[in-house]
Specification:
This protein folds into 2 domains: 113 residues, Orthogonal Bundle (Peroxidase, domain 1), CATH 1.10.520.20; 72 residues, Glutaredoxin, CATH 3.40.30. It has 9 helices and 4 strands, in the order αααααααβαβββα. It has a 4-stranded mixed β-sheet with strand order 2-1-3-4, with helices on both faces. Helix 8 links the parallel strand 1 and strand 2. The longest helix is centred in the N-terminal third of the chain and has 19 residues. It starts with 8 loop residues before the first helix and ends with a helix.
Amino acid sequence: MIEPSPHSNRDNLLSSQESKNGGLAGRYASALFELMQELPTDQQKSLTAEVADLLALLSGNDELQKLIRSPVISAEEKTAAMGAVSDAAGMSQLLKNFVALVVEKRRAAALPAMAQHFADLVASSRDELVAHVTTAQAIEQEQIDALKDQLKKAFGKTIVVEAEQDSALLGGMIVKVGSQMIDGSLRTKLDSLKTTLSGS
């Protein structure tokens, strides 16, 4: 297992990737993806699963979301809290170091986006597409499978679904594949209705 320090190789990779990838989350995700290439195949698979678990954990826990987004909680407090989360989740040292670096750089709020970008990079390397699905309620496996089939027919590639919940949607779902957004949420429908009724 490669266990880089929180400051050496990753900082260099982050700098070298900056001109190649748009967006902060993309740059950090690219750095982690580059480091993963140095690992044996089995450890690459483990890291991919760990990052997916991290995304699910952050997306499904309101307290964690408040923690990483709060401007009043210090970087030191966030580091301690996320360190405890990393230990409890049994993360590899590489991912622990990555999370620690992100928090140290005061980029904790972007962790979910980084995890999503990382999943996109892994999927692209496997000739897959990632569908980011947001629903008001937890989505059932049967629904996920049906969605995969529909998207595979539309895009002609194997689909990997990354699901998260957002109660603000009220109902329905939002599906994002690459730059394409498919919005079927009840919130959007209600907002559109309000606009129509107001005549604006």
